[in-house]
Design goal:
The protein is α+β, with helices and mostly antiparallel strands. It contains 23 helices and 15 strands. Helix 9 crosses helix 10, helix 9 crosses helix 11 and helix 12 crosses helix 13.
Length: 734
């Protein structure tokens, strides 16, 4: 790899704001949306871009040496490009209330901006080391001599090869190499086609109750996947990947995996509908006879050119940001951090309520840097923090059975009468709680299809999930707080042919069995101790008020190795994967996925915000137990009963005031060289999050540079629009 020319890919997805892909509209099965007269109409040029007409390319200008190279590139925008863009993104805007005129005008401006940026990026790179006009011309000549893309229409061929030169680092990147953005773009396009066909194909698949289907029992119960699981890395690509049309086989498509219940007939139906809609919208001529191989169609190269242009823009943005980032020194970061810290100190010292609000919206871009004195530990108990919540619910039958008591209490006319009726409700609820069992919620992660089966049987005879992803770190992201360590709790029947026949979750875990399981997992990372509390099955009201401690069943704590006084550093909450606190939170998170039914906790990773006033938003018994968990610090947990069932709450972080108030420490500590790796701040650290949040605001960032560049080149001199040639589209509102 030529490291001097290989820019980062941090903006690759964000920069691809408009991929002119008609798949979203066409593959969804919509009828013709655009009425055009003929193929010739779709081939009309509706705008032309040539930025070399501006002064920068005139004699003496900074890019004068590149005028011919840039000026000879194709700056034409065709009507088919506009129609394709409309089907991809514009149609949805019209459905949401935008006019056709405004939508098409907006799309034209977007297409023009893309052409300007591509042309400018050519000049930018030709002005950099590793790219020359001579090398560029020699590369084009060699590619044409070798017959590369010889069957592609000449105008598109020339432009594709032009972009290939830049996207392969001046033609030096080998096939499949990390810095081969051309191959990456081809993969992205093919993947987009398959994804669109996948979506369309579902309407042609066999129904779930089809007797010929091999779908297992329980697989229809969807379960959200952990963040990062089955998520392909942004920069991943492979050359072993093809479009599945149904006229070929899935096995011939490399790493593509067909959907559950997909057959060659359902795939062909989806693909044929796709082609029909492309024809009806004028994007493929009716005269084309052979359409079974999509990559042989001219339209594939129309879309490839679009994808390559977006890749070129991404490469340009990455290059700009790399230069801009170099100016963001540790000293500059320290200054920005200290400025924000001072602002928060004033804000939170003036208003504790603002502190409570802000800790509830903590994210990778919204930070709480300061803890006011009012949020300090009180009577040796922490007041502010977060809890994970594992909800083990009542059965539907018991919920319905006890609801009559609650309805009766709601009809009471006096506080005293309501309290008496609530006593009966709480007693009935406590009796019903004895029937609650913790059942594994992951049956939907079993399947007989490769693409949707996440379960594998290990040597211990138990079934676990996501091994094929956690073991493939080259292709897939690493999931936060998930290690696939909790086996499926139930019975899996496998037929003689190896297919899964049925999956049945066990129903033998009551609340004490479940807590024992949790304590066993937490016990791997520290000493666990728990005790019963003041829980009673028949809570009584005193002066019409209940003691919410009566609803808390258990209280415990794991003294985590390396955790002092129940506090951990928020700055390394996600980063220190070897620490006991990280592993303990991971165990609890996996229990949430395995048994919990609180959808608000799925992929939360920080949990519910607990404050002294959280009982204003949470139900009272839940708020009491949550505050008790936070009071004990990290590793503390409580079990309580509410109208929803049993809640097991685990405290994963607490806030506490210190003499300088800083949550993450001093600027010198945060941005120390020890927190860097290969010249960058380590992943999942506060230093990295803060760095990423401020760099986009720098004067030299790609977004600002591109904004200025477009203002300079989007002129009447460089851009010509032929509005009359797409006036029929602008008039579609009439």
């Amino acid at each position: 790899m030529n490291s001097e020319k290989h820019f980062g890919k941090t903006m690759r997805n964000a920069a691809a704001a408009l991929l002119c892909l008609a798949f979203a509209g066409a593959a969804a099965g919509c009828d013709s949306l655009i009425r055009t007269d003929n193929e010739a109409d779709m081939s009309r040029v509706i705008a032309e871009v040539n930025i070399t007409k501006e002064n920068d390319f005139a004699e003496g200008g900074k890019y004068a040496a590149y005028k011919d190279a840039v000026g000879n590139t194709n700056g034409k925008i065709y009507k088919r490009d506009l129609v394709s863009a409309f089907l991809s993104s514009g149609y949805s805007e019209v459905q949401n209330g935008a006019t056709y005129k405004d939508t098409f005008n907006k799309l034209v401006e977007t297409l023009v901006a893309r052409k300007i940026t591509v042309q400018y990026s050519m000049a930018y790179f030709l002005d950099e080391d590793g790219y020359t006009v001579e090398g560029y011309n020699a590369y084009l000549a060699a590619q044409k001599e070798s017959g590369e893309l010889k069957d592609v229409e000449e105008e598109k061929r020339a432009q594709i090869l032009t972009l290939k030169y830049f996207l392969t680092d001046g033609g030096t990147a080998e096939a499949g190499a990390e810095n081969n953005d051309y191959d990456r773009a081809v993969y992205s396009l093919k993947k987009a086609v398959n994804s669109s066909l996948d979506s369309s194909e579902t309407s042609f698949m066999r129904e779930a109750d089809d007797t010929s289907s091999d779908e297992i029992d329980g697989a229809e119960d969807a379960r959200t996947l952990p963040t990062g699981i089955n998520t392909e890395k942004e920069d991943y690509y492979t050359t072993e990947y093809e479009i599945y049309t149904g006229y070929n086989t899935p096995d011939s498509c490399g790493e593509y995996e067909k959907q559950k219940n997909s057959t060659r007939y359902s795939r062909r139906a989806a693909y044929n509908q796709f082609i029909t809609n492309l024809v009806s919208n004028g994007l493929i001529p009716e005269t084309v006879e052979e359409t079974t191989d999509f990559v042989q169609l001219d339209y594939f190269y129309v879309e490839l050119l679009s994808q390559l242009e977006q890749s070129m823009i991404s490469k340009f943005a990455d290059a700009i940001d790399e230069k801009s980032d170099a100016a963001l020194t540790a000293e500059k970061l320290k200054q920005l951090y200290n400025d924000e810290l001072s602002a928060q100190e004033k804000k939170y010292d003036d208003s504790l309520k603002d502190f409570e609000t802000d800790i509830g919206s903590l994210s990778e871009t919204k930070f709480v840097l300061y803890v006011p004195a009012g949020a300090a530990k009180k009577d040796e108990k922490y007041q502010y923090g977060y809890v994970y919540n594992i909800l083990i619910p009542f059965s539907a039958t018991d919920t319905q059975r006890i609801s009559s008591y609650k309805n009766d209490a709601d009809k009471a006319t006096t506080d005293k009468e309501k309290a008496a009726r609530m006593e009966k409700y709480y007693a009935a609820r406590a009796n019903a709680a004895e029937n609650i069992v913790a059942k594994d919620q992951r049956t939907g992660w079993f399947s007989n299809e490769k693409s949707s089966n996440y379960a594998e049987k290990r040597d211990d005879g138990k079934w676990y999930f996501f091994d094929k992803y956690t073991g493939n770190t080259k292709r897939y992201e690493t999931a936060a707080h998930y290690t696939s360590s909790i086996a499926f709790d139930g019975k899996v029947d496998v037929a003689t042919d190896g297919k899964i026949g049925s999956v049945t979750p066990s129903e033998n875990k009551n609340i004490f069995d479940f807590v024992e399981l949790m304590e066993e997992k937490l016990g791997e990372y520290g000493e666990v101790a728990s005790s019963a509390t003041g829980y009673t099955k028949t809570p009584a009201a005193v002066n019409n008020e209940f003691n919410w401690q009566d609803f808390m069943l258990l209280k415990g704590k794991v003294e985590l190795d390396g955790v002092t006084d129940g506090k951990v550093a928020l700055g390394t909450y996600f980063a220190d994967t070897t620490s006991a606190q990280y592993k303990a939170v991971t165990a609890v998170n996996e229990l949430v996925f395995a048994y919990g039914t609180d959808t608000g906790m799925i992929n939360s990773y920080i949990g519910y915000t607990v404050t002294p006033t959280c009982d204003e938003t949470f139900v009272k018994e839940f708020a009491y137990a949550a505050k008790e968990a936070v009071a004990g610090g990290v590793g503390s947990y409580t079990v309580c009963l509410t109208d929803y069932g049993w809640h097991i709450m685990y405290c994963n972080y607490v806030y506490d005031y210190n003499e300088n108030g800083a949550v993450y420490g001093s600027a010198d500590e945060i941005f120390a060289e020890a927190n860097m790796e290969d010249g960058e701040y380590k992943e999942d650290t506060f230093a990295r999050y803060f760095y990423e949040s401020v760099k986009s605001k720098l004067e030299g960032s790609s977004s600002i540079v591109q904004e200025k560049m477009l203002a300079a080149y989007n002129t009447e001199n460089a851009v010509t629009k032929y509005t009359a040639r797409y006036q029929d589209l602008l008039d579609m509102d009439n």
